[in-house]
């Protein structure tokens, strides 16, 4: 009987991608879905639902909680995580939440009901950790947020310096001659978004560039969220020459909006994103963006939680360096 590893090998896709197709997750391309489904039918593969139920009831799983359905950065991060954990024959259970949901409250319920061996959080806010999770004695890893000030000593974290990266993105636009700069996207309750926004605002203040709340438009981490935020910002400030999108998913939606306004990127408006997702390099033009090291972030997270699930090791907190991907969406106006 074929296994999920057989389906992955025959289809040419990762175990993580095959798992998402089997579990009907929305973040899989039609091409991948069709190819994997074809192999599943050819091999007459049947998921073992009894085994799946037993694993959910066991204490040997790692629960991965993902905050946001449409954030493509988390999709890429999840795939790398699943590959690393699968190589260690570690089972996982995945929980998708809306970006406005409380991921820590959900984790606490899962902790009480399922008793997982560990947690990995993709995204989230910090204020609820001390409220709900301070007494949970299970190894956990928080990705994209710095948890060194969280009271729970079992929580590790791996993140980018979002404050510094936000400032870097703005300085890159300034160095290319831009002084009318807007910022779009992000949830006001997100520490990650707030740090990127704060870094951007501080850098503009430092360079004596005017920036107030009217130059910022929040939006969901989705293509539609980026489109809507860009549309609102253009209506409010049609004279802007550059936009910093707080995520690549948002930036890609903004590119479409700018095109629909009969404007050109980068001739009329420059765009810089954040994350470095693969899709950004297939946009027309290729997206200029701040790159987060997904491979290192996921590898460190997997190694750390596996180590702490089996040995009494202290949590650690690491800030992983970022870099700029110089695409074609930022014009030099000097």
UniProtKB/TrEMBL annotation:
The keyword Transcription regulation is annotated on this UniProt entry? yes
Instruction: Give start-end ranges for the coiled-coil region(s).
Output: 71-98
Cited Pfam families: LacI (PF00356), Peripla_BP_3 (PF13377)
Keyword vocabulary terms for this entry: Coiled coil, DNA-binding, Repressor, Transcription, Transcription regulation
Q: Does the keyword DNA-binding apply?
A: yes
Q: Which residues form the HTH lacI-type domain?
A: 2-56
Molecular function (GO) terms listed? DNA-binding transcription factor activity; transcription cis-regulatory region binding
Q: Which InterPro entries match?
A: HTH_LacI (IPR000843), LacI/GalR-like_sensor (IPR046335), Lambda_DNA-bd_dom_sf (IPR010982), Peripla_BP_I (IPR028082)
What highest taxon heads this organism's lineage?
Bacteria
Q: What is this protein called?
A: LacI family transcriptional regulator
Taxonomically, what lineage is the organism? Answer: Bacteria, Bacillati, Bacillota, Erysipelotrichia, Erysipelotrichales
